[in-house]
Amino acid sequence: MRLQNRLNQFQRLHLKTGSSPAQFTVAELAEIFCCSERHTRTLVSHFQDAGWISWQSQAGRGKRASLCCLKTPEDLRGTYLQELLKNGEHSAALQLSQLAPSHLNALLAPHLGGQWQEDAPTLRIPYYRPLQPLDPLTLTGRAEQHLAHTIHAGLTRFIPGDSSPQPNLAHHWQISNDGKTWQFFLRSQLFWHNGEPLKTAQLVARFEQLRGSARGKHNLASVVKLSQPHALCLQFDLDKPDYWLAHRFADLNCLLAHPDDPHIGAGPFRLTTFSPELIRLEQHTYYPLQHPYLAAIEFWITPLLFAQRDNVSCQHPVRIILGEEDELSQVKPVRRSTSLGFCYIAANMRRGVLSEKQAQKIIRIIQSSGMLDNLPIDHDLVRASKEMLPGWPIPINEDVDVALPKSLRLLFHPPVEFELVAQALQKKLAQEDCTLEVVYHAGRLWEDGELLKSADLLLGDRLIGESPEATLENWLQQDPLWASILREEDRLLQQQRLASIQQIPLENSRSEELRDHFYQWMSRSIITPLFNYQYQVSAPPRISGVQLTAWGWFDFCQAWVPPPLPQENA
């Protein structure tokens, strides 16, 4: 911090003088530094000793001295930044990095991507914004959710490309014939990240916490009793069958953090540093499943690196070079995918301003006008939606001969692309003599029911995990959106249908019923997907194990950074 303050003071001086010689009294310098004359003499002495300035004083109070800056603030920051990075003082380096984006990029580039330190592979990821504290029950961002699944483990888990729940802390589970009793058998020798043995009673305590939480209670709504019939067995007794239960236990809101500290987990990586500039994860030695190939993962929070990009948030969530600096010319995209998650528009039927016919007309305007294809967004990053999930097509509305209300209110939350959608829709509805008021909601979640009820149209997004149908079912169960926009009879119908669907043992049959339910809502223009994101990861040819997840990140447990090899004929 002292170095930071001295650099800031030197920057004040350099702004005044540049690199040209100048003459000052100590009093004049004190005004520049905004400090006392005594402290000014101390600063000048430090600057001179460090070789930052030349200083030739003259005897006598009030005499002018000759001063010349020998360095620039950018050069000094760059020098000290490099020194801190080489010494492994990453947090201090990032605090110091008040450089222009181009300079900062040049300095940081050799230290980012895949690196080997002390014979251990480390992945360093530059990120454009600060991250939320990694408590699974409070997270909204895509990066945070991916990290939470990396730090915490559930009874079950999903692996990329497989929608069926897989063993995690539980190695097996069994279901009674009536579907009302579920037993999960835990692995032996489980440990928390702090080295403490994981006990079944702690998981019981954590599940009881989840049952009482706003975001976790819906996953456990059918559970009437939780017990521990054996030291390595958890039993869940239900009031009605719930064949989504193993899926729910892999969900973000059922990740099992330590009951006394939500930041301590039992997943493949443990959190060792969390600061505004640096998040560091290290391999969890006692993780019971396959150990990651990477020893550590670091998120370097460097907004300045992204300052020159267009003001849109739908950047590829991962733009990482997994390799050494001399491989930059060989880097190419190795994985691309279209997100199953989507941005959507919802019509508030409960408010009573819009009729279904009017909502259908608005969706028809969006579909037929090509509005989404002409937004000022990089279309390598987004793609207009044709279906909600593969095989779940969005209905194409017929032309509806109905007048729109004279005014409507639209509410949208991040990402900022929604503002562009709202502005385009404003223009289209104005052609129909309908004034659209646009209101921005800063939160990533619809948590304010009264705010939702005040809007006729809503723009939001929905992340989809590795098990898409289970994610959408969970969305219907948990999101306050539905209680705010559905008429009471539709809300009750939805509750009844979801209760019926969860009691169907066959997963394919559950999925078909859920698809039919969403198709009804889409046909009535209550909910309509608008566009999906395009995910991409780049790496040099020799890098392997890069596998995209449903979150748009890649699986940190599978990525492999080979060690630097000696040059041939060296």
Structure write-up:
By secondary structure, the chain is an alpha+beta fold. Among the domains are: 2-71, Arc Repressor Mutant, subunit A (Orthogonal Bundle), CATH 1.10.10; 153-254, Dipeptide-binding Protein, domain 1, CATH 3.90.76; 342-533, Roll (Dipeptide-binding Protein, domain 3), CATH 3.10.105.10. Helices cover 30% and strands 21% of the residues. It is built from 16 helices and 21 strands. It has helices at residues 2-17, 26-33, 37-49, 73-86, 90-96, 101-108, 142-151, 200-211, 245-248, 356-369, 417-430, 449-453, 468-478, 480-485, 488-501, 507-523, and strands spanning 22-24, 53-56, 65-69, 113-117, 120-127, 156-157, 166-167, 170-175, 181-186, 223-230, 233-238, 269-274, 278-283, 296-301, 332-338, 342-347, 382-384, 407-412, 435-440, 457-462, 527-539. The strands form five sheets. Strands 15, 16, 17, 18, 19, 20 and 21 form a seven-stranded mixed β-sheet that branches. Helix 4 runs antiparallel to helix 5, helix 4 runs parallel beside helix 6 and helix 15 runs antiparallel to helix 16. The longest helix has 17 residues, at 507-523. The chain is globular. The protein starts with a helix and ends in a 31-residue tail after the last strand.
